[in-house]
Each structure stands twice: as structure tokens, then as C-alpha cells.
Amino acid sequence: MNEYTQIKKYVTDTMFRCLAGISLAVIVGNLNGLAMAQTPMQTDGGHITASDATAIQLFRVAGKIDKAMLERFDNAIKTNRAISGLEFDNVMDSREIDLDAVMGLHDRIKQYHLSTAARGLCIGSCALLFMTGYTRTILPSARTGTTRVGLRPLVNQYNEFMTEQTNELITEIIKRSDGKITLEFMEKIYRVRDEIASLMIQYHTGKNDIQVIFLERGGEKLQPVEPSTAEGLGLKIGT
Questions:
Q1: Can you list the domains of the chain with their CATH numbers?
Q2: pTM for the model
Q3: Confidence of residue 219 (pLDDT cuts 50, 70, 90)
Q4: With contact defined as beta carbons under 8 Å apart, do 210 and 229 qualify?
Q5: How far is CA 121 from CA 91, 93, 107, 116, in A?
Q6: Which are the contacts of 44, defined by CB distance < 8 A and separation ≥ 6?
Q7: Rounded to an integer, what distance in angstroms lies between the CA atom of residue 125 and that of residue 156?
Q8: At what angle do helices 99-112 and 67-79 cross, to 10 degrees?
Q9: How far apart are CA 225 and CA 239, in angstroms?
Q10: 94: alpha, beta or left? (left if phi > 0; alpha if psi -120 to 50)
């Protein structure tokens, strides 16, 4: 099975589960697994697991971005100001995006100059927030070896684009990339027409670089997009 066939299988399975009304947690659990071991440089809810006090400490965001997650982050950084980044680990939007939490986390990224990392699936608001980090690192999924960052506009409960907030994040993304990411590149996300379509950045363990594709028509059409290198997008690849 080649990589494009694997992508089609992923999006088809995801669409089926969405239409079946299965919860976000089940979708993420079935795709890449929620029980991910913390890396030696993570903190979750204030619990430090780093053995090296000089290591970058990442606050782990898993499952979804909501008010409870934002409160955990606020409590964690109050007690541990060494936190300098966020690791998004299998994060996808639910049917109704918690816009206050998403934009609140965006404010924290700017306030604390946080770096970001993505592992596994990082779709929708997760992808937009990941791309606003002061440094942005794609990590391999511990279970599947593949990380996919799917850029889509923020949408409301009626599946309508929230252009004001999305454009605010796009402006930050371009700024963080030092101009490597262009407005033309980011505006491709407004071409999505279904719950699966996205401008997707993906990394497979063992590969030298990322791939960038545009998924459309329920994942049936895959279009390569340039730039298609980590350097070209101002990203780093972690191990």
C-alpha cells in the first residue's frame, strides 16, 4: 500500500466515523491511540516528567482544546514557569469548536512566547495553533510513525467559516515563519468543502522531509502543494 493509498484510507475511515456520530475520543483512539507515553520533556497539568532540569518542558495537549484544558495550562504555568512549549498529541476538533479556548490558547502562545510541537493527528484548530508557535517541530507518532497536521478554517456549529478568527491566526502563522509561509499558501485552506478536506502537512518516520498535499472531495483527490519541505515552511523535524 503506497502513501497516498494510506492517506485515502485514513480520510475515508475518518469520514465514516464522523457520519456515524462516533465521538472525537473514539475517532482519535481508533486512528492513533490516546494512550501515548509522555516524552522526557513534557509536563501535563503541572506534573514534570523531565529528568534533565535544563530540557525544554512541554505542556501536553491531547484529545481536544477546551476550557478545561486551558485551565490546566494556566495552573501548570503558574507553578512551573519553565514550561516553554506545547505538544499537541492527537488533537482534533469536535462538532462545536470551543472558540474561546482556541483563541485563549493562541493568546497564551503569544504571551509566553511558546514553541509548539505536533505528534500524531493535529487537525483543524490544533493545526492553526501549532503553526503559530515561535518554533514549530513535527514529531513522529509513537504508534503509527506518521504525523499529520491538517490545516482548515475555524468553523461554527453550522459549519460556516469563522473568517475573522481564522485570519487572525493566519496573520500570526505568516509572521512566525518569517515570511516563508505566504498568504497565498494559507488561503488554500478556504478551498475546503467537506469535513475531510484540508491543507495537510505530513511526516513519516524515516523520511528525510515532509509532504504537503491538499485533500478534497472527501479525500478522493490528493493534490501536491509547494513548498513541500520543512525548511520551506519554517518547520523543524524532531525525533
A1: 3-33+54-237 (3.90.226)
A2: 0.80
A3: low
A4: yes
A5: 6, 11, 22, 14
A6: 38, 59, 60, 62, 72, 76
A7: 12
A8: 20
A9: 24
A10: beta
The cell numbers describing 159, all together, are 459549519
Contact 114, 144 (CB under 8 A): no
Residue carrying the nine cell digits 462516533: 22
pLDDT at 35 over 50: no
SS (H, E, C) the chain: CCHHHHHHHHHHHHHHHHHCCCCHHHHHHHHCCCCCCCCCCEEECCEECCCCCCCCEEEEEEECCCHHHHHHHHHHHHHCCCEEEEEEEEECCCCCCCHHHHHHHHHHHHHHCCEEEEEEEEECHHHHHHCCCCCEEEECCCCCCEEEEEECCCECCCCCECHHHHHHHHHHHHHHCCCCCCHHHHHHHHHCCCCCCEEEEEEECCCCCCEEEEEECCCCEEEECCCCCHHHHCCEECC
- Rounded mean pLDDT of the chain? 81
Distance CA 143, CA 22 (A): 22
Q: How far apart are alpha carbons 128 and 166 in whole angstroms?
A: 8
Enter the C-alpha cell of residue 98: 470551543
What is the Rg, in whole angstroms, of the alpha carbon atoms belonging to the chain?
17
